[in-house]
Amino acid sequence: QKVAVGRAHSKLILIGEHSVVYGQPAIAFPFKQIEVKVTVKTIGGNTIQIESPFYQGPIEQIPEKMEGIGDCVIQTLKVLEKRSSGLHIRIASSIPIGRGLGSSAAIAIALVRGLFAFFNQSLKDSQLMALVERAEKFAHGTPSGIDMMAASSANPIWFQKQQEVEMVKIGAPFHLVVADSGRIGDTYSAVKSIRDKYERKPKQIEESITLLGKLTEDVRLGLAVGDYQKVGDKLNQAHQQLSLLGVSDLGLDGLVEAARTAGAVGAKLTGGGRGGCILALVENETIGKKVADALVQAGATQTWQYTIAKC
Ligand code: MEV
Question: What is the DSSP pairing of strand 87-93 with strand 48-51?
Fold first, then answer.
């Protein structure tokens, strides 16, 4: 029996979510502690069987909210010019769904990698991106593409739509605490709500978006020289702008506040918002532990400590 595996890790947006949809830059990291693993193997019969935490059964009957996954399998097999039958595809993920951690992009990346590995084909970056972009449109509507770039990158990235991805210089290692509110956010509707507001109040939204772009530039400079007070301050300001845009909520504001009170240099929501996760910048791991405890006290269902290495 033939077996192949495809993997992809999670992603973390440090700053620039939402404004990135409007052409502003964003900074994101690979978040390697949590990942998706796809196992592809042969089975008898003529079907493609999907086994996942959310659905088990033939691909034809995949529920509507997983349509992107079904489509991704079919499209990948098309690109591979392979017969679409006799396959068992198992999706296992330690990335919580709908928390702004890029689970949908990671699932698509792992699927494409797994299927290419199964058929012993080498996968070009351009092929991967085209297939994942299509899957992401099912999940997000109008994705900027940052999730799939960060989830397939080994290093921190500077991302701007329609531009080459750049490396981000990290002058000194720094620590983040990520906390899950435990609530599923809806990136699709968060992105759409800003779009609706933009149509009604273009000036006000434009201002926040431009400011978020400027804050992202400042964070890049701060990271390059290891000035984490400055970075933390900009992260706080970014959270305020995201609140003004209407994508934070009381729960996320509460976690951000708890992180700051416990000693974080800065904290903000990460990803689409309205549920999902926050991240906090801390000076060292000892403070990180204190901040993580405070976040759990404040209702976080899970926390992760994350160190970004100098590069
Ligand atoms: C979602 O992880 C990030 C958003 O900026 C949407 C996108 O860029 O596609 C909210």
Answer: parallel
1-57 pLDDT per residue, tens: 899 999 999 999 999 999 999 999 999 999 999 999 999 999 988 899 999 998 999
pTM of the model: 0.93
The domain segmentation of the chain, as residue ranges, is: 3-159, 170-308
ipTM: 0.98
The CA-based dihedral angle spanning residues 40, 73, 52, 114, taken in that order and rounded to the nearest 10 degrees: 30
Q: How far is the CA of 20 from the centre of ligand 1 (A)?
A: 7
* Domain at 3-159, CATH class: alpha beta
| Probe target for ligand 1 pocket from 14, 162, 165, 187, with the most ligand atoms within 8 Å of CB | 187
User: Are 3-159 and 170-308 in the same CATH fold?
Assistant: no
Q: Is the CB of 216 under 6 A from ligand 1?
A: no
